[in-house]
Amino acid sequence: MLIFTFRVNAPRTGRGMVFACLVNPSSLMATAETLEEFYQHKFNHLPGNLGRQTGHFNVFRVEDCVGEGATPVRYSRRDFYKISLIRGDNIYHYADKSLRVAGSALLFFNPQVPYTWQPVAAGSTGFFCIFKAGFFTGQVRTNLAHLPMFAPGGKPAYFLDPPQDQQASRIFEKMLGEIDSDYPYKHDLLRNYVTELMHTALKLQPSETLYQHPDANSRITAIFTELLERQFPIESPARRLAMRSARDFAEQLAVHVNHLNRAVKQTTGKTTTEHIAQRLTGEAIALLKHTDWNISEIGYCLGFEEPAHFNNFFKKQTTVPPSAYRAV
Q1: How far apart are CA 269 and CA 280, in angstroms?
Q2: Which candidate, 311, 252, 296, places its Cα nearest to that of 74?
Q3: CB atoms within 10 A of CB 266
Q4: 167 to each of 160, 163, 231, 278, how far by Cα in Å?
């Protein structure tokens, strides 16, 4: 595997983003999330017109889809396009790149590339729209996949200064106002609004510098660490860890578990399993100290099927059982 990085500078402001690129063709084999799965995960229902549209389109506010109780965004491809205007501090894992966006940016995602995002701080705001390729069939002068923001290896993120943010926000507000209207030609308008967003990004022309990074192992280790940390803190005994084994993380990253283990060991000197066990122990200690959950509940939310398994794990890590630790 090879790793590259890009720096993208915002116009006039001088702010920049650093892209880290780990070339891993197997990551493109992740199972694609369908529109049906998207609506079930986000809203627990399907739109009535979902199967009747040649090219589905919809638009949302970010605030309506994030926060407590929201389903985490899994790292995978989608079978639809997505354009986001995001404000806040967030990390995006996009195919073989990762980027941190602090401020306002337009982000473009296509069906060929897996992605996920992680909020660094609470309070992200903005908009996003989703659409199938059929929504634009015969309506644009070039294939969507040939546009720079959707092309493989293209530029998926564009910083916005305050006037550009206001311009993009107005376009999304128009979409929101139009999507539920009875106007018979509203989809023509919506296509125009999406096209305007794409041209807004194309006119920014971000500069980029490409150079080869010497260490691919540190890159995959960083993503593993972020995936591990995003599961914490656990705020309810009903919430259970989704990933607690090296194989779980390898599947999420779309790499072989041996490759993940080797990269983490070479970078940190510890095995993947040791990192997971250390983090589980730290969370268990916090829950024992700061909650009144019983030990069975703590063990369950940490992914242990039986209380005895949690007791044995905790004692192995700390030399004392959880009941004794709580009593101290």
Answers
A1: 19
A2: 252
A3: 12
A4: 10, 6, 35, 47
Contact between residue 86 and residue 104 where contact means Cβ atoms under 8 Å apart: yes
Contact yes or no for 275/268 (Cβ under 8 A): yes
* Cβ neighbours for 301, distance < 8 A, ≥ 6 positions apart: 234, 236, 237, 238, 239, 240, 241, 287, 293
- How would DSSP label each residue in 271-285? -HHHHHHHHHHHHHH
Across 212-230, average pLDDT: 73
Please name the helix (run of DSSP H) or strand (run of DSSP E) that holds residue 231, with its range, or none: none
Element (H, E) at 203: none
pLDDT digits (tens, 9 = 90+) for 251-280: 888 789 999 999 999 888 999 999 999 999
Distance CA 212, CA 286 (A): 41
**Beta pairing partners, 81:** 131
Residue 44 has a pLDDT of 80
| CA 71 to mean position of chain CA atoms | 11
Instruction: Please state, in angstroms and rounded to a whole number, the distance separating the CA atoms of residues 243 and 302.
Output: 10
Residue with tokens 């390898």: 250
Alpha helix ranges (H) inside the chain: 35-43, 162-179, 186-202, 216-229, 246-253, 257-268, 272-290, 295-301, 307-318, 322-327
- C-alpha 328/C-alpha 320 separation (Å) is 11
> pTM for this structure?
0.57
For residue 236, pLDDT over 90 is answered with no
| Domains parsed from the chain with CATH numbers | 27-203 (2.60.120.280), 216-327 (1.10.10.60)
Q: At 20, is the secondary structure helix, strand, or coil?
A: strand
Residue 145 class from Cβ within 10 Å (0-12 exposed, 13-18 middle, 19+ buried)? middle
Query: H/E element holding 126?
Result: strand 125-131
